[in-house]
Amino acid sequence: MTLDTTKNTDKEYIVLCPVDGKPAPWVENKEKYGRNFGKSYMCYYCKEHDTYVGCHNNTRVPLGSMAGEELRKARMAVHAKIDPMWKSGRLRRGEVYRIITLKLGYVYHTGESDLETCNKILAMEIAYE
Ligand SMILES: [Zn+2]
Q1: CA of 24 to the centre of ligand 1 (A)
Q2: Residue 51 contacts by C-beta under 8 Å, 6 or more apart in sequence?
């Protein structure tokens, strides 16, 4: 798995569009949605390829790697599957991620995962064996 997020300094990030491999502009998400959504509305967005990633609290720090529509939906589906497991208190958050990491065989972050990884997690039974 390759990360296309390169940390430059604390304030400058180069976030690459996965389609053209070019640095995406850091913009408000109204560029994509027509009006700003959420408290943290700064994002990296390639208008040409509709790839997008949000940022932490309106900083330049990206939440993961840029993704197109299909991958964004898959990542959202992963969150919809795993977040209730720890939000309900059934498992601790770290435990959920540990089980997934053991089953995948590599450490993952939902925000940086590719479609293949998302699909594996969506098909996975997440429980202690
Ligand atoms: Zn692009």
Answers
A1: 7
A2: 17, 18, 19, 24, 45, 66, 67, 68
Q: How far is the CA of 94 from the centre of ligand 1 (A)?
A: 34
Q: Is the pTM of this model over 0.90?
A: no
d(CA 110, CA 98) in angstroms, rounded, equals 13
The CA 14 to ligand 1 mean position distance, Å, reads: 13
Residue 78 · residue 118 · CB < 8 Å: yes
Using the mean position of ligand 1's atoms as its centre, give its distance from the Cα of residue 124 in Å. Answer: 32
Sheet of 51-54, strands arranged across: 26-28, 42-46, 51-54
Under 8 Å between Cβ of 36 and 28: yes
pLDDT digits over 1-30, tens only? 445 555 544 567 999 999 999 999 999 999
Residue segments in the chain with a per-residue pLDDT below the cut of 50 = 1-2, 8-9
The closest alpha carbon to 113, from 88, 58, 76, 83, belongs to 76
